[in-house]
Amino acid sequence: MQRPRFFQPAVGDAGAARVNPRPSPVSHLPDATIKHLELLQPVISRMGQNSFAVKGWAVTVVAGFIAALATQVLRSKIIWAAPAPVVGFWLLDAYYLRLERQYRNLYEAVRRGEVAHDPFCMEAGKFTSGASWWSVASARSIVAVHASSLLAVVGLLVWNSCH
Q1: Which position among 5, 32, 88, 126 has the lowest Cβ density within 10 Å, counted as fewest Cβ atoms?
Q2: Running DSSP on this structure, what letter comes out for residue 76?
C-alpha cells in the first residue's frame, strides 16, 4: 500500500520517517499580525461559549415552566409572564452571535491586512457585514432553540387556560 505523498520521507533523508513540512497558511504574515489574530481567536471562542450557555439557560427555564405547569404550581396569572424570559434569552443569544460575527469579520480584515493602520485593534463594532440584528436573530442556530421554546411555552399557556 502506497502512502500519500505528504507522508513520504523527504528527499535526502535516507529513508527517515519524517513528514514533509507544509507551508503554514500564515507564514507570509508579519509577526504583529499573527499576534493580533491570536488575540482575536479566544474572543471569538468566548462569544460562541456564551451563546451556548444562553441556549442552555433558556432550555432550563422552559423546562422549569413546563414542570411548574405540570405540577400546577403556577396556576395564577403570573404564568403569562413565561414568554418574557424566552424572548429575553433569544435577544441575549442574538447579541452574542452578533458580537461573534463582528469579531470574525475583524479577524478576516486583520488577516487580509485591512487593519494595518490600527495595530491590535479589538473594536469589532465597525465590522458589521452580515451581522445585522435581524440576520442574527433569525439565524437557524438561534431560531431552532428559541422559537421552539417560545412555541412550547405559548402552547402550554393556551392549554393551561383551556383546562
Answers
A1: 5
A2: S
Residue 99 CA to chain centroid, in angstroms? Answer: 9
Taking a C-beta distance cutoff of 8 angstroms, is the pair 130, 101 a contact?
Answer: yes
| Alpha helix positions (H), 20-139 | 31-70, 83-111, 133-137
Of the candidates 86, 22, 33, 81, the residue with the CA atom closest to the CA atom of residue 57 = 86
- Nearest of 45, 30, 39, 47 to residue 120 by alpha carbon: 39
pLDDT tens by residue, 19-49: 545 545 555 777 888 888 888 899 999 999 9
Amino acid letter, 93: D
Q: How far is CA 2 from CA 7, 16, 30, in A?
A: 10, 16, 38
**Cell numbers at residue 47, please?**
462569544
* 3-class SS of residue 6: helix
Calculated CA dihedral for residues 145, 150, 153, 155, nearest 10 degrees: -110
What's the N-to-C CA distance of the chain in angstroms? 70
Cβ contacts of 21 within 8 Å, gap of 6 or more:
none
Which distant-in-sequence residues (6+ apart) come within 8 Å of 73 by Cβ?
A: none
